[in-house]
Specification:
With 512 residues, the protein is an alpha+beta fold. Helix content is 37%, strand content 18%. The chain is built from 16 helices and 20 strands.
Length: 512
C-alpha cells in the first residue's frame, strides 16, 4: 500500500542523492500554478530511490493539467488520471490527480480525521491551518491522518477538515487573548495559553458514557437517533460532569427531557459541546446549532400552514435496466422542496440499510440537502418514521423485508404483496404523478422479473425497490393533508430537529 505523507519539502529531501531529479522536481513544485487553498502536492513515502516502480506524487486537478501540458512525452493511464514521465534520466514520476482515490473512506475514518484536526487546533495553540497544504506540511497532523486513512488521505476530505476548522475557529490577531469559535456572537472561547478543553473525543470517553446512559436509562439503542454528535468537546473535569448527570438521573422517574435541558445549559456555557461533522461540498463550511432553543418554540407539523408541499410528484423511481446490466438500481427517492422563496430541497434516498446482505435488508432513509452542495443531513430513524405513519392512520407499510417477495417465484405467486399487488401500486403511483423513466406498467413488471433473476440481486436488490414503492403507496393512501404533514416530519427527524410531535432530540452543533 502507498502511504502518501511527503509534502514537497520532504519529497525533495527523499531524493537528495539524485541531484538532477531533485532540481527538476523543485522547479515543478515552484512553478505549480495553484497554490491557493487547495492541495499542492503530496508524495508516496513508501517508494525508495532505486526502485523500478514509479514514484507517485499526488497534485490537485489544476496543477495536474499544468504538468501534463508543460511536460510532454509522458504516458497517460487510468483514463488520463495518471501521467508518468521520466525524470532525472532514470526515474519514472507518476503524477496522480488527487480526486482519484483507491477506496471510499468509511465513516470512522472521516470522524476520526475531523476530531484529530479540531484537537490539533484547539489543544495546540501553535497549530493553525490557513490553507489545505498547511495540513500536509504539519508533519504531526498529517502523519496521523495518513494512519487514520491507511495511507491515502483523499483531497476532498482534506478540504473538509480544513473548512471545518476554518468555520469553527476564527483567530483574532489583535490584542484579544482569545481564539474564538465564530457563529453570530460567539460559540465558545479557547484561551491562547492554556486551553480549558480537556477532553476531545470521537471514541471512548464521554461518547461511551453518554451512549451508555441513552441505552440503559432511556432505552435508546442507537445514540444517533437521539443526538447525532460525532465528537464531544468537554471543558473542565469530565468526571465531575458525569457525576452531575448520574446524580440528576438517579431514580426511576427521570426523563430524556431532563438530560436534554442539562446539555442545553452546558452547551450555552461552552462546557459540553456535541458536534455533528458532515462532509463539506461547497467552498465554505456552514455552522448551525440545533435544539438549543426552548421546546415551546418548536414547529408544530399538525398546523397545515407549517407543512411543505409534499405530493406524489415528490416520488421518484427508475425501472430501466442499463445495457450490459441485468438489474435496475434498488433505490427510490423522495424529493421535497420547502416551498419558500429561499428554496431548499431535501432529497431522501430510500434503499437497503445493508445492500451487501443476502436474502433481504430493511430500508434506510437518508436525506441530502441539495441547497448546501449536497450536504448529508443524516438518516431518519426508521422506527420513528413508521410510528408517525401509523399515528396518522396509515398502517400498510412495514419496514420488514420478510413481508415482501425475495425471489421471482414468490413475486409471481404471492397473493399478498406479489405481482398483482404491485401492478396496481405502480399504476396508481404513476397516475398520481410519480416521476419515472418508464411509464409502461407491463414493461416495468417485466424488468422487475428480470431484475429478480440477476446474480447481483442476492434476494435484496429488487425486494428493496418494492419496499420503497410500497412506502410511497402508504404515503399516497394518507391523503393530501396528512401526506404533507408526514413529509415535513421526515425532513425534521432526519436532521434530528425537534418538533412539538417529536421533541426528544438532544442539542448539538452541526458543521457541514
Amino acid at each position: 500500500m502507498s502511504w502518501f505523507s511527503l509534502n514537497p519539502k520532504r519529497a525533495l529531501q527523499k531524493v537528495s542523492s539524485k541531484k538532477e531529479l531533485q532540481s527538476q522536481l523543485k522547479e515543478i513544485f515552484d512553478s505549480l500554478p495553484d497554490k491557493s487553498e487547495s492541495l499542492l502536492a503530496v508524495a508516496d513515502d513508501d517508494w525508495r530511490v532505486g526502485s523500478k516502480e514509479p514514484w507517485i506524487i499526488k497534485i490537485n486537478a489544476k496543477n495536474y493539467d499544468w504538468v501534463t501540458k508543460n511536460y510532454t512525452g509522458g504516458k497517460f493511464t487510468g483514463g488520463k488520471k495518471l501521467y508518468t514521465i521520466m525524470m532525472g534520466n532514470d526515474i519514472n514520476i507518476r503524477w496522480r490527480k488527487t480526486k482519484v482515490t483507491p477506496s471510499s473512506p468509511n465513516t470512522q475514518m472521516q470522524e476520526l480525521g475531523s476530531a484529530w484536526i479540531l484537537e490539533r487546533v484547539i489543544n495546540d495553540n501553535n497549530t493553525t491551518f490557513k490553507k489545505v497544504q498547511d495540513i500536509v506540511d504539519d508533519k504531526v497532523t498529517y502523519e496521523k491522518l495518513v494512519q487514520i486513512f491507511r495511507g491515502d488521505v483523499p483531497e476532498d476530505w482534506l478540504f473538509t477538515f480544513y473548512a471545518q476548522q476554518k468555520r469553527l475557529f476564527n483567530v483574532y490577531n489583535g490584542n484579544s487573548p482569545y481564539t474564538t469559535f465564530a457563529q453570530q456572537k460567539r460559540l465558545f472561547n479557547v484561551y491562547n495559553g492554556n486551553s480549558p478543553y480537556t477532553t476531545f473525543n470521537r471514541d471512548g470517553g464521554f461518547m461511551d458514557y453518554i451512549t451508555k446512559i441513552c441505552s440503559t436509562k432511556f432505552g435508546i439503542a442507537k445514540k444517533d437517533s437521539w443526538n447525532p454528535a460525532d465528537i464531544w468537546i468537554i471543558k473542565g473535569s469530565q468526571a465531575k460532569i458525569e457525576r452531575e448527570i448520574d446524580k440528576m438521573l438517579d431514580g426511576d422517574h427521570q426523563t430524556i427531557y431532563e438530560l436534554n435541558d442539562y446539555l442545553r445549559v452546558k452547551y450555552l456555557k461552552k462546557e459540553i459541546m456535541g458536534l455533528s461533522l458532515k462532509k463539506v461540498s461547497g467552498k465554505k463550511a456552514k455552522y448551525e446549532v440545533v435544539n438549543l432553543g426552548d421546546r415551546s418554540a418548536y414547529i408544530d407539523t399538525t398546523d397545515a400552514s407549517m407543512n411543505y408541499p409534499v405530493t406524489a410528484k415528490c416520488f421518484q423511481s427508475n425501472f430501466s435496466i442499463k445495457p450490459g446490466k441485468k438489474n435496475f438500481t434498488q433505490d427510490v427517492r423522495l424529493v421535497i422542496d420547502n416551498g419558500a422563496k429561499k428554496k431548499k430541497t431535501y432529497d431522501f434516498q430510500i434503499k437497503a440499510n445493508s445492500p451487501e446482505q443476502e436474502n433481504g435488508s430493511n430500508l434506510k432513509f437518508e436525506a441530502t440537502l441539495k441547497g448546501a452542495g449536497g450536504a448529508r443531513l443524516g438518516k431518519a430513524p426508521v422506527d420513528q418514521i413508521v410510528e408517525i405513519m401509523n399515528d396518522l392512520g396509515e398502517r400498510g407499510f412495514k419496514n420488514d423485508y420478510n413481508e415482501y417477495p425475495g425471489t421471482l417465484d414468490e413475486f409471481q405467486t404471492s397473493t399478498k404483496k406479489g405481482k398483482k399487488y404491485f401492478e396496481k401500486v405502480i399504476k396508481k403511483l404513476i397516475q398520481a404523478g410519480m416521476k419515472t423513466d418508464e411509464n409502461n406498467v407491463n414493461k416495468i413488471i417485466e424488468n422487475i422479473e428480470k431484475s429478480y433473476e440477476s446474480p447481483d440481486d442476492r434476494g435484496t436488490n429488487t425486494r428493496c425497490k418494492l419496499m420503497g414503492l410500497d412506502f410511497f403507496n402508504s404515503m399516497l393512501n394518507m391523503g393530501p393533508e396528512k401526506m404533507r404533514e408526514f413529509g415535513t416530519d421526515m425532513v425534521y427527524i432526519s436532521q434530528k430537529k425537534g418538533t412539538k410531535k417529536k421533541d426528544t432530540f438532544g442539542p448539538f452543533g452541526k458543521v457541514y
